[in-house]
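S.,

Sequence below, as promised.
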Amino acid sequence: MAHVLLPRKKFIYHYKNVRWARGRCETYLCFVVKRRVGPDTLTFDFGHLRNRNGIHVELLFLRYLGALCPGLWGYGGTGEKRLSYSITWFCSWSPCANCSLRLCQFLNQTPNLRLRIFVSRLYFCDMEDSREREGLRMLKKAGVQITIMSYKDFFYCWQTFVARKASQFKAWEELQRNSVRLTRKLNRILQPCETEDLRDAFKLLGL
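The prediction came back faster than expected:
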């Protein structure tokens, strides 16, 4: 886990939402962890991770949760209340099918954790029947908000996670167009989740 800021060129290379992202075999994950400690007070932590030693970055992040979120599982006292956390990820790739499944299993056991995922690109989601598509639908059912990164999200990451010095974020060619294209694609992927819910409702109604 690194609080050291990302080099500018590395951020642009790995987060650029190009249609053909050849050579980008790693996934980078920038995170923000928040916990409300009072009516007007939040704790705030941030950093970034990438795949290491064959371990996908999403699962690597779960290994650090104990340090990032003290009290998430309580402090060992009987009946002690667990603390609630809100976590936001900004990922260069969307999760693979196996990571989606592991995340769903973890979140089902941790109802006091809320997760939002912003992704730059969709991982292996071109085929209609891909496991990665189903994984994203599972995450949505588990309560995860999944969103394609827009200009404002890239700008936020540049301001928060990048060693930018005095340089301003400059949108690359077709950033907006690719963001819109990927947003439409993600919406089509997640739509069946809502259709299945309607089918279940119709069955209950005997329709």
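The longest strand covers residues 28-38.

Coffee later?
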